[in-house]
Amino acid sequence: MRSKLITSESVTEGHPDKIADRISDAVLDAVLAQDPQGRVACETFVMQGLVLVGGEIATEAVIQPERIARRVIREIGYTDPSYGLSHEACAVADVLRQQSPDIAQAVLKAWEARAGSADRYDVLGAGDQGIMFGYATSETPEYMPLPITLAHKLVRRLTEVRKAGTLPYLRPDGKSQVTVEYEGKRPVRVHTVLIAAQHAPDVDLEELAADIRRHVVEPVLDKWLDEETEVLVNTSGRFVVGGPASDTGMTGRKIIVDTYGGYGSHGGGAFSGKDPTKVDRSGSYMARYVAKNVVAAGLARECEIQVAYAIGRAHPLALNVETFGTGTLSDDDLREIILEVFDFRPAAIIDRLDLRRPIYEPFSCYGHFGRLDLSPTWEATDRVEDLKRAVVERSRRLV
Questions:
Q1: CA-wise closest residue to 306 among 353, 351, 337, 344
Q2: What is the domain extent for residue 172?
Q3: What is the mean pLDDT of the chain?
């Protein structure tokens, strides 16, 4: 079989972009906790000593973005001004403004409703145009590609040993990168692993590398390591200055980390800070939900769903299904079955996945998919039997 190498990366919650993502989702959750119908498009910018929270919002909720931002920064671990960002010492600017009335009228009364449809799911239009992707594979228990799964686990472990005091010299910023060797479609080993860990200035770098290997790399990668695996730690040397002191952070700059690590496709839209009327988020969650149920039903070992929307319209413009030659049906037949079983209109997605709840902040880091620790609705495999029945019924009709 042809051998290939596939690489994915992840970052810790202390990475500047992830600080921004988490603040944006925390603002969203604060709105939804008071006003489930609230509409939010929150963007956060973070730099040394400064956090700027902006974007558009339409809600009856009364929130305090400054307090939210300081709470997030403290929980991540930026509590010392010498880190370049401190929950007590930083400045927080709140520049949230009202959502455009043009967008609001398109979302709250869809084109179908304006044309006379009485269907309750035709009331809500998509909050923007765009294409969304969902992907699932049978290669891991999470139904996720192995490289991004391992990359997330590494940075989560890096954060755990920092917060638990196992490696007390670590600081909040950090990254991982994992290269997995495949034989055909089957992952066989980790080829290379890269860890970047921010640390206190007085740490011996050789000691740090040994500690990271012992406490982070080996417990996470375990059976995927072999004698030829290359483990690289802080290849730049010292990594004392990190977080917003070394680089600005912005919401939505880690979208590949948030999804499939480059293994599956991405439409380009960010998730964090967006309420579920924004199909960048809800459409992507739905596409993942469908793809995972297809794979869990045994209809394919690998599945990617692409769905396209127009702002102000409830029904998607197009749906495409790709099983990469692993399906038990043709992709065209599977597409028709999916359209029978699943409703991709935004209001139907919100209803099915119960998305008008304050659930989003925990997903701002370590990925939105494959999160068995959080059991989100879009990771459920509760439509497997519906898909199987639809396959049987379609076969009967064709006989």
A1: 344
A2: 3-11+146-242
A3: 94
